[in-house]
Specification:
Elements lengths: L13 H22 L3 H20 L7 H14 L3 H5 L5 H24 L13
């Protein structure tokens, strides 16, 4: 990385400015990628939660455990802020399973749109002759 230009410099170095902009963009991309959970990982997490809800249903548990409930609400709020309000306080396995199916449907739609984006259009740098 280049040393920053001194404050009292009497000239503008465009190469240094460009290098600093590129470095800032790389740092921002690295920050975003660490803090953004891809849809595929969320889909895997929802599958695991669905398995646990199904186990509760098979065991005839009337209400899912609170730790599982917290995981479902957290994942639902990450995918769509409106889903936790649809969950309400109903912790019955059938209701939670239905919300998880809705959540998985939205995640699958997100994955499909990510795949269908394709390549970005090429912007010509110079006018055609």
């Amino acid at each position: 990385m280049m040393a920053p230009m001194s404050v009292g410099a009497s000239y503008f170095n465009p190469y240094e400015a460009t290098a600093l902009q590129i470095e800032a963009a790389r740092a921002q991309i690295a920050f975003r990628s660490r803090h953004r959970v891809p849809s595929k990982r969320r889909l895997q997490a929802s599958d695991e939660l669905m398995d646990q809800v199904e186990l509760c249903r098979e065991a005839s548990v009337r209400l899912i455990p609170s730790d599982l409930w917290q995981k479902v609400v957290r994942l639902a709020s990450e995918v769509d802020p409106n889903l936790p309000s649809r969950l309400g306080s109903d912790r019955r396995p059938d209701r939670v399973g239905a919300i998880l199916f809705t959540l998985q449907d939205r995640l699958l739609d997100d994955i499909r749109t990510e795949r269908s984006r394709g390549a970005a259009p090429v912007i010509p740098l110079f006018a055609a002759r």
